[in-house]
Amino acid sequence: MRVGVFICHCGNNIAGTVDVARVAAEMRKLPGVVYATNYMYTCSEPGQEEIKQAIKKENLDRIVVAACSPRMHENTFRKTIEKAGLNRYFLEMANIREHISWIGEDKELNTAKAIDAVKMAVAKVMKNKPLYSSSFKVNKRVMVIGGGVAGMQAALDCADGGLDVVLVEKSPSIGGMMARLDKTFPTIDCSICILGPKMVDVAQHEKIKLHAYSEIDEIKGYVGNYQVKVRKKATYVDWTKCTGCGACMEKCPTRNAYDNFNFGVAPTRAINIPFPQAIPKKAKIDPAFCRQFTKGKCGVCAKICPTGAINYEMQDEIVTEDVGAIIVATGYGLFDLDKFPEYGAGRYPDVITGIQYERILNASGPTSGHILRPSDQTEPKTIVFVSCAGSRDKSLGVPYCSNFCCMYIAKQAILTKDHVPDSQSYVFYMDIRSPGKGYDEFTRRAQEDYGVKYIRGRVSRIYPKGKKMVVRGADTLLGTQVEVEADLVVLATAVVSAPGAAGMAEKLHISYDTFGFYVESHPKLRPVETNTSGVFLAGACQGPKDIPASVGQGSAAASKVQALFSKDMLESDPAIAQVNTNACVGCLKCVRTCPFQAIKEEELRNGKKVAKVIETVCAGCGVCTSTCPCGAIQLQHFTDNQLLAEVNAICQG
Amino acid sequence: MYKVYFQTYEMDTINLSEKTNWEFIEQVQKESGENLSLCYQCGNCTAGCPYTNYFDYPVSMVMRLLQTGQKDTILNSKAIWLCATCETCTTRCPCEIDVAHVMDTLRIIARRENKVSEKDIKMFYDAFLDSVKRFGRIYEVGTLLTYNIRSGHFMADADLGPKVLTKGKIRFFPTKIKGSDKVAQIFERFRTKAKKHG
Amino acid sequence: MAEKEYAYFSGCSLEGTAKEYDTSFRLVMKTLGVTLTEPEDWSCCGSTPAHTVDHVFAAALAARNLAIVEKMNIGTLTTPCPSCLMAFKKAHLGMTEDEAFKDQVNELLDEPYEGGVISKSSLQIIYEDVGLEKIAEKVTHALPDLKVAAYYGCIMNRPPDVAQFDDPENPVAMDRVISALGVEVRDYAFKTECCGAAFGVPKRAMVNELTYKVLSMAVDAGANCIAVACPLCQQNLDLRQEQVNRAMGASFNIPVLYFTQIMGLAYGYSPKELDMDKLVVSAGPLIKTRIPIAEYRAMKEAEAAAAKKTPKAREAKEAAKTEES
Questions:
Q1: pTM
Q2: Is residue C160 less than 8 Å (CB to CB) from chain A?
Q3: Per-residue pLDDT averaged across B161-179, rounded?
């Protein structure tokens, strides 16, 4: 065996705190190592060329590169040695940058540690076996989870590119948060007027199949071949018959159902269509409020429905969709008022959230677009907006900025002045964050042209005094406490991850941060990819985002899917588990512990029952290998022998 | 009813390279156990402070003066003595700074350095502590009288006298607890220790 | 049910200006079957003044008492005074979370404190340990004329990490205790706004202004008396009410009772026993209408029956009303 070792300086990143020449010299002393050198940038073209030349000249058959994390350049060097005629699994990388040079300052200690690390890699590479990937077919159908603006954009872009799309939406209509907004910043164009056409496109597109009012139950499979169980929740209305005429809603005697679409600004009926532009425009019953369900009798809607669509016996239905890739666009959630005891914790009707105010401003909202405050339906003249209600507040567990509140507050203040010309708006803010194109000009316009008073300081307390709400805050620029007697207070409540975001991430096998936002593959260079192949992100499920950013990500995710589906066959990673049927005793512990359901029972010709790994499903996580009591199941490229060789290299050295 | 601080507020240009007292910042951080850099000047403490109308520097400004190491201005301020430790600032601080504890620490440092701008309040506290030292407990009449004599406000709360007298709310003689010498010893030990540590 | 026992730290104020708090608390505890044992030879907690001297010194004055209680093997100390409570809780937290601090404090003490005492306010033990059911069970009298605004003051519930009781912004314990007695409670927003604390003597104008705000909010909420749980709050709101009237041009005449006095009244103790005469603004007219609970219930039933007899008339009246509107 002839091992070549290449130690990278990575400029000063490694060479600054590791004596790379000494590491190379030490390696030359090892049995089996016939060549060892150090180079400024091994990943550069000349660096790779050097490896290729050395393989030829020295007749090397195993290569070790000591450089950065294999997450960065393992693929680079695998291709390099492949081009020089070696099997790509005859490469081993020692991470002497992230694991050593970046974390320690003592050059002596670092060098010693680097020597150990490279020794381990040498020991392992000598045990490496050639592995070959197999290829499998790709199902060129994509699922988009979430029918907000990001999901819709992704679905439309995929469908326009000729892909079959399955769009799954949790609520009864697509449209998401954007469908609830009145106008959009900084152009003040009507939100539903620009979103509506997209919604109609989705509905009419031949390539898009929509499951509304549906949730994801289970996801199985792997890139190119996912099987997704979709739960179509019972609406108690046969949507094939429902024409969306709305007669049922008009006659429904239950008038106090919670209106999810309007965020509870006003009650709705127990059977309802969320909003006039809803897609699909179909009715559904809310059994928590419907008298037929709570009291066992009523039946008004069933009597009234001209098409006989009402079915109180309806059950949830499970459908399985086979797809090759998944775009996750599940959006965001918002803090509730009860998080703010100092602002009344939701006890004061005239302290509302920003999204509730959107519904009050909106012509299709409960007040038909007239600004009326909830307590007495009068027109407020003094309106106070409180930004950062929960955002940038460590004590509430939201240390981050919610991204778009500064902008929508400016927009709402401008609209307020348009609706009620003799009104005065105040905005309490800590910093105005308006870095988008035309954004800062917009917040300036609110102040310069619309006379909105911006007060730099936080609000400490809101309490009622007669018919007014006293907002007590600070003006830190004046250096004093200030009070405004308001008719209506709007809190820009913090953006949080969507309810159930963590559970969805578990189903998808993708990572999420401490706040429940999904983690992209790389914060700069792979913004819509996840660490699970074939699963992509779009919109605010990854972090608070405004409309243009969400739409951009929707398109980006769609283009990633197009690229993935441009091949008919995909190559599988051969670094997966393999069962030695001679050693397997058929206890099948591995079957129970496999998180991917990649192992099944198999009967051999001699009648012996053993475990069998489904190659395409196995993700190579290694849980089974540590579970197996007799060492019969081995993860290729990480076998017990290979790992023990590494351990021996440092313990015996 | 509006206060005076706009007059005292005027400050000269502060040469931060010369006039930042870094040791003072360190000292306050160490003695209070609070990281002053956490404060991002949102003003919530000022917004909730019931006493801010009486302060020469609102509490968020005290925090800012601390961040910039303006030792003399802070220790000579009235604000640190007018704070009643009502804990509103601590309760509502989004950065989880125990602001009231920082104010407490500033009073302690000011007392130690003999820079007390609100003599009346300090005298009242001292009269209180004298009572504790002598009797082990507070003797309300004695405390008030001691304060009145020392402060020169001879008639402070004299209007309340008849009320409390007729209501039988006042004891004319202090109760001295058996262990009052033990309490006095706490004072003594503290004094000796403080002297020793300079 | 085993009888509850607490080490009872009354605090200096309850020996003087807040004597009626002590008297009423002891009586109420007797009714509720709670034993109070006074620690022998307790001393002042140090309160706010000690905290302007030194953290260790302040903790030592409080911890001397905690050490005494620790020896009593009762485990829980209760004090009616929020200022004492805060001094104990802060000393305890400081000493249990930081070993070095504990050593420094104990250096100043004769008997060391090892951190084995839990301190709770009297309101907390009544609300949490005795419980609303038991509180309601012992009621003998109704107080139909009382409309109470419960005032908690600034440090009963704050900061939340230290107080570990009720809500720091909208506390409800006292409201619920008083409601459990069958007494009407008025909700208002200034339950925790500071009254001016100990600044009554050196900074009277400041206290008058703050007290004025609290009194106004209570009166605006329709309350005709205020319940308090703090001797200093009581002093500022009651004793200084006339000062406030003079300074602010107001005409408040609203009684400020300790919540334990209201409990005592509902439990049948006489105003004299509860030291009601020590209140500067008399609650006399409000409690004159106190009647035994059985009589009160009979009266209410009779009223309800009378109302039932004429349902048609009432319906007609209501119909007329809706037509009008």
A1: 0.89
A2: no
A3: 72
